[in-house]
């Protein structure tokens, strides 16, 4: 559905305020709310009284408004008109995520690709290390899949590692996924995730940015992206994170906003688990199954149907988990000769069986040996990889 002319005119005004240098979104919002102004009054000049009372913008409002970057505005409108899936959502639009307004200085305009209605879904953020383990990717994939199957959209940052695994997992579920980027809406970063970006849009998800079209990736953009991830989500799940990382920034932002924070524990000898263990020490909830997250929220909106998982209904590959040889493979890396020793078999016999398990999605070959996987993998969406 296209925006009405009135809504489009309002978006243009919010875009104009966003381009004015030296004035933050918080200051514009304070000026408007404290002086009971409408956008029309602000742009028509009916702000003279406010100009003398406002502490944040005491003088020269007319000059400020006249300094709006018309080139940026036109470029943004051209981006929106380039495709039906492109949309500019201002802070007063119904599609603007309500929880995002709790930021002290929320974006005045969001650039959205895909299904903008997805932004209204209840959502959980899944974040973690780019340099994650294979096991960490699998955990992110499975948690995202199960959360999406239960009506939760999964929000992440389109980065490599945990982010990508979460997006891919969520696309297998019912509620889909939202990627928040640190670039303009016409840029994909990292470039290798162009296919992932396209898959998110094709599957009914959305890609969101607060940056103007043409904006390249810069280091300062990603903490800003992280605050949006934390703010628009009811909770944040951390899977593998170093102590000094953007992931911990996202978790701390979520804490500051009063959101729930969850962390998956890991190997104490793995530096990517240090951040999770730190968060758990600070009060984050330790989780190892999706129900640990869902139980923290009393209910989902009625339009989302909770999907109950019958643990008794297992496929043959899942029943293989009771096999003795599979039981001897750990969730951490297990060397083939160790597996052979545990089962009193030759290495060649063990490899033949492990290949069968791998084809069925029960184990994965990694540097140094094999790791056991949890549950069925990728049986519903063969084109999605982790």
Automatic annotation (TrEMBL):
Belongs to the DprA/Smf family. It comes from Alteromonas ponticola. It comes from the Bacteria. Residues 313-369 form the DprA winged helix domain. Residues 88-297 form the Smf/DprA SLOG domain. This is DNA-protecting protein DprA. SUPFAM superfamilies: MCP/YpsA-like. InterPro entries: DprA, DprA_WH, DrpA_SLOG, WH-like_DNA-bd_sf.
